[in-house]
Design goal:
Layout lengths: L2 E12 L2 E7 L2 E3 L3 E5 L6 H8 L7 E6 L2 E2 L11 E4 L11 H12 L5 H9 L15 H12 L6 E5 L7 H18 L2 E5 L3 H4 L5 E6 L2 E7 H7 L2 E7 L2 H12 L3 E4 L3 E5 H4 L3 H10 L4 E8 L2 H8 L6
Parallel strand pairs: 4-9, 4-10, 7-8, 8-9
Antiparallel strand pairs: 1-2, 1-3, 1-5, 5-6, 10-11, 12-14, 12-15, 13-14
GO molecular function, one term: ATP binding
Protein name: ATP-binding cassette domain-containing protein
InterPro entries: AAA+_ATPase, ABC_transporter-like_ATP-bd, ABC_transporter-like_CS, P-loop_NTPase
């Protein structure tokens, strides 16, 4: 097991307010790590401490196997990042923006510019001024800039902010391809959990500065509820039949649906529908659902949505 990033009791205090509290994060090589939490939970503060943009009050950061020392920024050579919204010079072209970046990064090979633009689907727009870019193109240009120096770790803070549904899908596809082709380790914070769960293999949940849970997405999916909502003409009769035949407990939802846990007895919905119909019940709806990442987050954070 090779860790790219570990934090130990990372804490940030502003006077009496604790923004991040004894946070211990573990990111392994090759992870696409989703970092989620409500506004003000401490996500961006954590990422800024990892990147040395703000100093921690206490605790430490270990990156690539070495402890980060105060005022030592040498480790940033292997990290690319976008914190909040990526800024560019609007009157310059995409190519000119990235050329400025390689100059102050000390990168001599200008071929890296076109390579980065190509990876993010922007090569054909290299000579277009950034002011004429869509929001999605500006986000991709920001990522192209972040990978110019071929980092080992890429940190993206809310990369889909403000994007329309098509822009979100496109950005996800580019991120997944980058991770695969460049063998990148990624940390991604996002409010759009339905999109995030399509990308990540590991999840960190932060609330009020505390890391509530760090878990593999495979485990999340295994632990998520799977249930069926059933609407019939006689609710009481249906509940009795389900209990007597399958031993299924049920609850009433919105005064019209019977909800049953499908994992409880590992019963298929086609058997349930057949049973109800065979007992002369009129079946109006049977909706098979699996708990998603947002519902999982709500259950851990005391019923509060993002």
């Amino acid at each position: 097991m090779e860790y790219i990033l570990r934090t130990k009791n990372l804490t940030k205090r502003y006077k009496e307010q604790i923004s991040v509290n004894n946070l211990c994060m573990n990111v392994e090589k090759g992870d696409i790590y989703g970092f989620i939490g409500k506004n003000g939970a401490g996500k961006t503060t954590t990422l800024k401490m990892i990147l040395g943009l703000i100093p921690p009050t206490s605790g430490g950061v270990n990156i690539f196997g070495s402890e980060v020392r105060r005022n030592d920024i040498s480790y940033l050579r292997d990290i690319g990042s976008i914190i909040e919204f990526p800024s560019s010079y609007e009157e310059l072209t995409a190519y000119e923006n990235l050329k400025l970046h390689i100059n102050y990064m000390g990168i001599r090979d200008e071929k890296t510019i076109d390579k980065s633009l190509e990876k993010l689907g922007l090569l054909k727009d290299r000579n277009k001024k950034v002011k004429n870019f869509s929001l999605g193109m500006k986000q991709r240009l920001g990522i192209a800039r972040a990978i110019l120096h071929e980092p080992k770790l890429l940190i993206l803070d809310e990369p889909t902010n403000g994007l329309d549904p098509l822009g979100i899908v496109e950005l996800r596809q580019f991120i997944l391809r980058l991770a695969s082709e460049n063998q990148l380790t990624l940390i991604i914070s996002s409010h759009i959990l339905s999109e995030l769960e399509l990308m990540i293999n590991k999840l960190g949940i932060i609330d009020k500065g505390v890391l509530l849970k760090e878990v593999a997405m495979e485990e999340v999916k295994n632990n998520c509820l799977e249930y069926a909502d059933i609407r019939v003409d006689n609710i009481e009769k249906a509940q009795k039949i389900l209990e007597s035949h399958f031993g299924l407990n049920s609850e009433l939802i919105e005064d019209k649906y019977i909800r049953i846990d499908l994992k409880e007895k590992n019963i298929k919905t086609n058997l349930i529908s057949k049973l109800l119909i065979d007992n002369n019940l009129e079946l109006f709806e049977l909706i098979n659902r699996r708990e998603n990442l947002e519902e999982y987050f709500v259950s851990l954070s005391g019923g509060v949505k993002l």
